[in-house]
Design a protein that fits this description.
single chain; alpha/beta; 8-stranded mixed β-sheet; 4-stranded mixed β-sheet; about 40% helix; AceGlu_kinase-like_sf; ArgB; amino-acid biosynthesis; kinase
Length: about 280
């Protein structure tokens, strides 16, 4: 039987080259799904983010908050409505989105990071024009398409040693509206603007599966040139289409690689970044 102390030492030794690789580099993590809802997973994500920050990785967190928005809408007697997988966002819903994302969800996450020993700072996509957007399509209401990212507030936070935590609401450029932005899209756009080394999209599936019903068919690596054929074959389908699309756009625009990562696995971020294992689907 192996000595658990030796095993832990081996794990740390295995992490060293990866810490050296990512030291001083920027990693953007889109945080959402079960990893936000489950207390155990939430604690694991928080500790992963703090550890990465302490070993010199510049971590940027971009978060959604769909379940919290739906819960608040229920409280005011309003039903959530989705069009093509996007939340239909009328004026009243946009007010709730802004209050929940920029307020409660963002500040709760910042407070949790700070209580655990991190140095987190909350930012809204409207702060200093961080995310600027126009209406995506009238059929979605106040859902925006990002047209410009001004990353200075995030860059300034990183220079001061903070962990920026960014909510996905954008300033409108086609009027005085605020816009609801898909969190995967916002994370990808921000990763490009920051010239990030890596983009991690935490999701509620194992990664990209050749057979969606069989988790053993995980595709651990996908080259951008493989994507059109995988789309044609129906391997990339449903909710995976926009996620892969975000990763493709990010990598084509200069992010070294992007990973669709199973946020249901405790410490999946550390396993992916600081070990030989790698547990998601890497697009490069």
């Amino acid at each position: 039987m192996s000595d658990p102390v030796v095993t832990r030492a081996q794990v740390l030794a295995e992490a060293l080259p990866y810490i050296q690789k990512f030291y001083g580099k920027t990693v953007v993590i889109k945080y959402g799904g079960n990893a936000m809802i489950s207390q155990e997973l939430r604690e694991a994500v928080i500790s992963d983010i703090i550890l990465l920050n302490l070993v010199g990785v510049h971590v940027v967190v971009v978060h959604g908050g769909g379940p919290e928005i739906s819960a608040m809408l229920r409280k005011i007697g309003k039903e959530s409505r989705f069009v093509d997988g996007l939340r239909y966002t009328d004026g009243e819903t946009m007010d709730i989105v802004q209050q929940v994302l920029c307020g409660k969800v963002n500040k709760d996450l910042v407070a949790t990071l700070n209580r655990r020993g991190g140095r987190a700072l909350g930012l809204c996509g409207m702060d200093a024009g961080l995310f600027q957007a126009r209406m995506l399509d009238e059929k979605y209401g106040l859902v925006g398409e990002i047209v410009q990212v001004s990353p200075a507030p995030v860059e300034d936070s990183l220079k001061e040693g903070y962990i920026p935590v960014v909510s996905t609401v954008a300033q409108g450029v086609d009027g005085e509206n605020a816009y609801n932005i898909n969190a995967d899209t916002a994370a990808a756009k921000l990763a490009v603007a920051l010239k990030a080394e890596k983009l991690l999209l935490l999701t509620d599936v194992r990664g990209l599966l050749r057979d969606p019903q069989d988790e053993s068919t995980l595709l651990p690596e996908v080259a951008l040139s493989d994507v059109p054929l995988l789309m044609k074959e129906g391997v990339i389908q449903g909710g995976m289409i926009p996620k892969v699309g975000c990763c493709v756009e990010a990598v084509r625009s200069g992010v070294r690689d992007a990973v669709i990562l199973d946020g249901r696995i405790p410490h999946s971020i550390l396993i992916e970044l600081l070990s030989d294992a790698g547990i998601g689907t890497l697009l490069h």
